[in-house]
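Lecture 7, part 2: worked example. A protein chain together with iron/sulfur cluster.
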Amino acid sequence: MTSGQRAPTPETQRGPVTGSDAPERLKFDMDELLNCMHCGFCLPACPTYQQTGLETYSPRGRIGLMKGVAQGKLPIDEEFERNMYACLGCRACETACPAGVQYGRLIETAREVVEDVKRRRGRRSFTRHLVFKQFFNHPRRIRVAGGILWAVQAAGLQRVATKTGLVRVLPREMAEMQSAVDTVASPSERKRRPSVMAPDAGVQKAGRVGLFTGCIMDVMFYDTNQATARLLNKIGFEVVFVAGQVCCGALHAHSGEKVDAVELAKRNIEAFEAADVDFIVNNAGGCGAALKEYAHWLADDPVWAERAHRFVERTRDICELLAEHTPLPFQRRIEARVTYQDSCHLAHGQGVRQQPRQLIRSVPGVQYVELTNADTCCGSAGIYNITNWEMSMRVLDTKMEHVRRTDAHIVVTANPGCLLQMKKGIQRAGLADRMEAVHIVDFLERALGSAAPLG
Ligand code: SF4
Ligand code: SF4
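Predicted complex, written out as structure tokens:
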């Protein structure tokens, strides 16, 4: 044994793990679990612990449960599943942890273990199969769903359903969230999208970007994707809408569907390799964190490891790239009080905190006000606000108390899920007459003069 290795103690030894669940239990990275020294520094940062005060709803408690399962001391049962899925996956605990415990990877494994065991026991729901196997893996089906949503909105049915209360035929969580959804792009508008957008005339060419458009992002926030391309054109980048790209796999990885997540990663790596771009740019903190995990997901694959590494090296959040090209050529002032809500996966997952703030502050006329606990989750967390509605709204209401105190006119975010959640939060807090939530790309574009000014 070298001096740096941990001495084998009864705790560090996994011990004999037997029984039919053994293959799943052995998936846990025991070294990573044992990095946790139970100090509890992460507890105040954890939104679900803040709300409940329960150890099993804290990072330390969840790691303890995972360790028990990994060592064969605890069952992989419904209680374990409930505790693992009550986690937002926000990774605030990673930022707080002095030992550098990679909690995000641990929770992904825990959910993978839960789903593997359920699959083997024949307890998987048909809805889950539909969502992950038959929908998110198929870009065309997502586009068709977007077309249907557009038709419903264009016919005024969404408004009628909301006014008449018909919307209540939907599950409560979806009925509540639909009020935060903006009008989506029409199928014909989407068809008109060029495959390449050239840099603005007279601007020195900065490089070639492959835009990662996302799956739901490209349906619900198509205009923001187009604005992202226009912003990049303004600072000299040629933008390619890369054919063959698919969902980033974040939702799959966070929901225990790791095999599918890895397959999606391979498809994206292949698609962007063929496009021969300098950078792979995204505008969704959640997607970006997943894209940057590809090297980890494929680290043990001899065919894909190096290709994944090269993919990650070129991947940037839009704020990272824009911040390198400041000052942006602003044409308009935005006379407003503005605050910023961090995307968890941008701040805790990618360490991108300062660049969005720098960009917002650089807009002429902006009075920037920092939001207390800006990097605490808003409760959106992928599909958490659908699967764990009550907890999601408790977390959101706490967030909105801080947002209200900023007295801001605009809450800027850098992730579509956060944007929808903040819109919902503004409605719930009764602030809709004086506050709006805006994606950072749309916010910057207003000051660049390519979009409508603030109302
Ligand atoms: S990821 Fe977020 S919700 Fe989950 S344990 Fe860590 S801090 Fe708590
Ligand atoms: S801060 Fe890190 S080491 Fe301490 S209890 Fe939390 S996860 Fe474990």
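Confidence is low (pLDDT under 50) at residues 1-11. Residues 129-178 form one domain. Keep this in mind for problem set question 3.
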